[in-house]
Amino acid sequence: MAKDRASRSEGAPLVVTFGEMLIDFVPDVAGVPLAESGGFVKAPGGAPANVAVAITKLGGCSAFVGKFGDDEFGHMLVDILKKNGVDTDGCLFDPHARTALAFVTLKSNGEREFMFYRNPSADMLLTEKELNISLIHSAKIFHYGSISLIAEPCRSAHLAAMRAAKEAGVLLSYDPNVRLPLWPSQEAARDGIMSIWKEADFIKVSDDEVAFLTQGDPQSEDVVMKLWYDGLKLLIVTDGEKGCRYFTKNFKGKVPGFSVKTVDTTGAGDAFVGSLLVSIAKDDSLFHNEEKLKEVLRFSNACGAICTAQKGAIPALPNTSMAQELIAKGK
What we know:
Keywords: ATP-binding, Carbohydrate metabolism, Kinase, Nucleotide-binding, Transferase. By secondary structure, the chain is of the alpha/beta class. Helix content is 34%, strand content 22%.
């Protein structure tokens, strides 16, 4: 298996991401309600797919596993993955279902709200039988969110993919990416997200997600530590432009963020995660080396910040030199 991992891209270890990719319709003017928006720009979206592209843009090696409608949007999205160097061997098309759509409201501060069209969309219909298990087995890291846990048959496919990865000794990475409008209720979201919590090797959550999952103050370390469990290698809490906090078995701390003019926060967390996964895939001793981890998180903070300065997720994902430039300026 190690040989298979190494042979994929001049020795770059493979990160497989799993879940949804969709079209975001982003209003051409920020701060206007959806009903009053005059026009929309279509942008590829879906956190796990954004992470896959973030990885290749930073020189890493990634593959995406998910299902698309056999429609123009579905083929457009898979083409975008291919153009960005993402392996699409795990991508499938469903002739009977549409590719998911989301209408995004951009507030004037760049934060957003979502209205989804998925009833059911193709990504929700991926079955366990359709999984490309050999692709998952060849990964160094298997990364996923929680949207794929909402409905069957995708939920069973998600759980089977995690099991296959774990059995092959692949590291599991989880970014829950809470999207409440997609769950039947807040309780269902909390229960669904926490149902697989203790399987992951590393988890990234935002401060808002800490507040939602614990119903406590996300700035309180005691509250954050409710999300820790024995066996977790790394827990990251992102605090927007303030940076991030990190927790491992042996050390904890925070790394300050970068101040940029925020246009659209879409994809910032995915840019952060993609950057972190590229680093962990190359060197998983980070969990035991605080100085190395802080350097990697500084780089990930820079990637997240750069992504907020432009509309859309995938077009705004940075390359390595852009992140290094921002870090140099910050010094």
